[in-house]
Design goal:
single chain; two-stranded antiparallel sheet; mainly alpha; about 425 residues; about 10% strand
Length: about 425
């Protein structure tokens, strides 16, 4: 389950939490012990709804007898694969109640809850007040632990165990990602990817379309710069960003087309909706798109990063790129004319090689990857200067050119020490 996709509304949207609770109860009935990822969803639902949520389940009539875990999370039983679990859970059996899992993790990492509290306080920017933050920590903590366990154990599943999407099949329209499970089970089963999505505010949907037309030629360069998914199922795919390939297999994906204006954009999206090819705009899986939920452009072509400062660098570049495009549109400067098939092939080339080879410029010429990066920096330099990001972003780009992308570092670790070395690299880079 990709956190970015949840945020952007691609998976859950506005669907009824009562129905989701029913499907989770159905999963418990069928499987006896649920995977930790679904336990986290259940914990969030239970804690967010409180006693009122249990009353809603009783009143809704869809649950003959709501699961006891909705009012008592200690009754939530989690499957713990024996060969893929944190050391803190070694003393537990093949499954354990969520309360025991939380206690075991806290005993092994006594500072973890305080670190989460500090991070939450920083993200909330001092709101709500301290008592409110303490309450949020208390409410969210079981779900946080369950999600952490899910990340550590998701590679191991019981024989014959289906991916969790199937329990949502009755909750979603056929065109949604969960609904695709019965129609495209292999695609859904392999949707084990995480992308980094950057939202940049735009004054209006019309200006958003004009900016979208101007940033699309730079998306392959951003993909190469962010490449961090070279491995799949324990082996090297030969691609720097295999996530890009995996995600390009859905009906409406890849490079966004050029739109004449917002009316043209909306007309073409409506055609997809009317034809039943997508069920809602959350299924527009373009590498950049207008957000349906926020007044933003979403740039979605980036892999999740190993280092926080690499994520900061990419965020600064994307913001500067969109600001540059907005300024160009306001000045009446035309968007670069680039054929769709050339852009699509350029994106594939960027995903294949990252920064280790060449990139393709809007004119179709292959150029050294470093040369294209410097061209991007030159293009967005005024916007970086206005935001005060120029020194930091430029320095981080130079560091990445010297040290390699996340894909380069993962491959080096694999060659040096196999998958354990890759795991050490990821945990060392992505934890405080």
């Amino acid at each position: 389950m990709c956190p970015s996709c949840v945020f952007d509304g691609d998976l859950f949207g506005g669907h009824d939490p009562v129905r989701l609770a029913y499907d989770i109860d159905h999963l418990c009935f069928e499987e006896l012990a649920m995977p930790a990822g679904w336990a986290a969803v259940a914990a969030l639902l239970a804690r967010a709804g409180g006693t009122a949520f249990v009353e809603r389940l009783n009143d809704a009539g869809v649950l003959a007898v709501p699961g006891a875990h909705w009012s008592d999370l200690s009754r939530l039983w989690i499957w713990l694969p024996p060969h893929s679990r944190p050391a803190a859970l070694d003393g537990l059996g093949a499954g354990a109640g969520l309360t025991r899992v939380v206690e075991a993790v806290e005993a092994a990492h006594p500072d973890l809850r305080e670190r989460f509290r500090a991070q939450l306080a920083e993200e909330l920017e001092q709101e709500p007040d301290e008592d409110g933050r303490d309450y949020l920590v208390e409410q969210l903590w079981p779900a946080v632990i369950a999600y952490a366990v899910a990340l550590a154990t998701q590679e191991q599943e019981r024989p014959g165990h289906r991916p969790p999407w199937h329990v949502l099949s009755d909750s979603f329209e056929p065109g949604t990602l969960a609904g695709h499970f019965t129609q495209a089970p292999q695609l859904v089963a392999e949707q084990l990817v995480n992308g980094m999505h950057v939202h940049v505010g735009v004054p209006s949907r019309e200006t958003g379309v004009q900016a979208l037309n101007r940033i699309r030629v730079w998306l392959p360069t951003l993909t190469a710069l962010s490449a961090n998914s070279p491995l799949w199922d324990g082996h090297d795919t030969g691609f720097a960003s295999w996530r890009t390939v995996i995600f390009s297999r859905w009906p409406v994906s890849g490079m966004p087309p050029h739109f004449a204006d917002i009316a043209d954009h909306d007309r073409r999206v409506q055609q997809l909706l009317d034809g039943g090819l997508i069920s809602d705009t959350g299924q527009l899986y373009w590498q950049a798109r207008l957000s349906a939920r926020y007044p933003t452009i979403e740039v979605r072509c980036l892999d999740v990063q190993l280092r926080v400062d690499d994520a900061v660098m990419l965020t600064g570049l994307v913001r500067a790129l969109v600001e540059t495009a907005l300024a160009a549109a306001a000045a009446g400067a035309p968007a670069l004319d680039c054929d769709q098939e050339l852009l699509q092939a350029s994106m594939w080339h960027a995903a294949r090689h990252g920064l280790s080879s060449t990139l393709v410029d809007p004119g179709g010429r292959q150029r050294r990857a470093g040369e294209m990066l410097y061209e991007l920096l030159r293009y967005v330099a005024p916007a970086l200067d206005v935001s005060g990001d120029d020194l930091q972003v430029t320095a981080l780009v130079h560091r990445l050119l010297q040290g390699g992308t996340g894909a380069d570092r993962q491959r080096a670790a694999l060659a040096h020490g196999g998958l354990p070395a890759v795991t050490d690299l990821i945990t060392a880079r992505s934890t405080p």
